[in-house]
Write the structure tokens for this entry.
Amino acid sequence: MVFSDFEADISGSQRKVISTTVTPVRRSEGAAGIPLRGGRTLPFRVSRLWSAPAGHYGERFYIVSPESREVLFEGPEHLLLIWGLQAPTEINDSIDEPVALEPGTYKLFFALGGISGGEVDVEAFEPPES
């Protein structure tokens, strides 16, 4: 068996978010995104699935204005044990404290060990009064 033509892709950090969801905590406020009331967030949940080399890492997410690139909110920091590339690690945060945001589209950036592992767009919206 000859493997001379085989090359593994080992460039880069190999840290990446492979799945994300951002949802209101209360289902009555919608199925996805960040609910708002009067320019402040209502409770919401951020879930993500990481694939990374085995090790201990600091992890957090950031809400960023897409126009100015200003960080508007830093999620809580977690110290994680990642089992390895073949064993995705799930992290869930519930953000209960109100954050000042206006309706619109924002970027969520995810960092593991200080290195970016991905980004997604998320919509902040005013749900109907219940």
Remarks:
- Residues 20 and 95 are 15 Å apart (CA to CA).
- The chain is about 0% helix and 55% strand.
